[in-house]
Amino acid sequence: MPFFIPYDTKVNDINEIITPELDEILGEAIPAEFREKLDTRSFFDESDPNRAHLPEFNGCHIFGSIPVNRVSGELQITAKSLGYVASRKAPLEELKFNHVINEFSFGDFYPYIDNPLDNTAQFNQDEPLTTYVYYTSVVPTLFKKLGAEVDTNQYSVNDYRYLYKDVAAKGDKMPGIFFKYNFEPLSIVVSDVRLSFIQFLVRLVAICSFLVYCASWIFTLLDMALITIMGPKWSLRYQPDDKTKGILDR
């Protein structure tokens, strides 16, 4: 298939790394397995001489899943004889490692959960033999709410690019796309915990007490302001018909 960058794809950038909300995960955790299909009719137009024939399908479309252990590893996408012993050598002038990542995740495939590398692209027209390296750090994350559980794997990523002309002499990096992954020795559990009735009662009493305390201070400050500005008769505590007297008033 021809190489193209879909609309609304981040070019030479990655998505923001965030932890989804619990309700968002439970609402979008729908397992699936699919791949995008290219409609070739959009490239064909008999009235246009430049589009009267279908383009040459010279791009690669890689999709699927690979079982890996929870240890450090690497996925390499490169050409023959680049770093490997092969009987045939790929012509360097025909190699281009510009690429689009539609979806990249660890664990079960949930198409509605966004990942840092989803819908991203790397494109370098001047240097097609660029080495692209992604360093991912994977953290197993379990979401739990009302008996429902969603087992996912969040990951952070750092991406680097190296030009072939700069690293060819060293021989430590070959042109291609490399995904290096490392599973962290910890896991995150995000759960929804309900309060007991006693805890709810204690918190309710504490909130009501705080509201009463704030109201008393507001009443006192308002009373002091009225006395200062308009005199004692405007006090909220003023009682003109009060006949009771204290000991010092007798």
From TrEMBL:
It is a multi-pass membrane protein. The keyword Transport applies. Pfam families: COPIIcoated_ERV (PF07970). It is found in: Endoplasmic reticulum membrane; Endoplasmic reticulum-Golgi intermediate compartment membrane; Golgi apparatus membrane. Residues 58-218 form the Endoplasmic reticulum vesicle transporter C-terminal domain. GO terms for biological process: endoplasmic reticulum to Golgi vesicle-mediated transport; retrograde vesicle-mediated transport, Golgi to endoplasmic reticulum. Its main location: endoplasmic reticulum. Keywords: Endoplasmic reticulum, ER-Golgi transport, Golgi apparatus, Membrane, Transmembrane, Transmembrane helix, Transport. GO terms for cellular component: COPII-coated ER to Golgi transport vesicle; endoplasmic reticulum membrane; endoplasmic reticulum-Golgi intermediate compartment membrane; Golgi membrane. The chain crosses the membrane at residues 200-227. InterPro entries: Erv (IPR045888), Erv_C (IPR012936). Belongs to the ERGIC family. PANTHER family: ENDOPLASMIC RETICULUM-GOLGI INTERMEDIATE COMPARTMENT PROTEIN (PTHR10984), ER-DERIVED VESICLES PROTEIN ERV41 (PTHR10984:SF81). Plays a role in transport between endoplasmic reticulum and Golgi. This is Endoplasmic reticulum-Golgi intermediate compartment protein. The lineage of its organism: Eukaryota, Fungi, Dikarya, Ascomycota, Saccharomycotina.
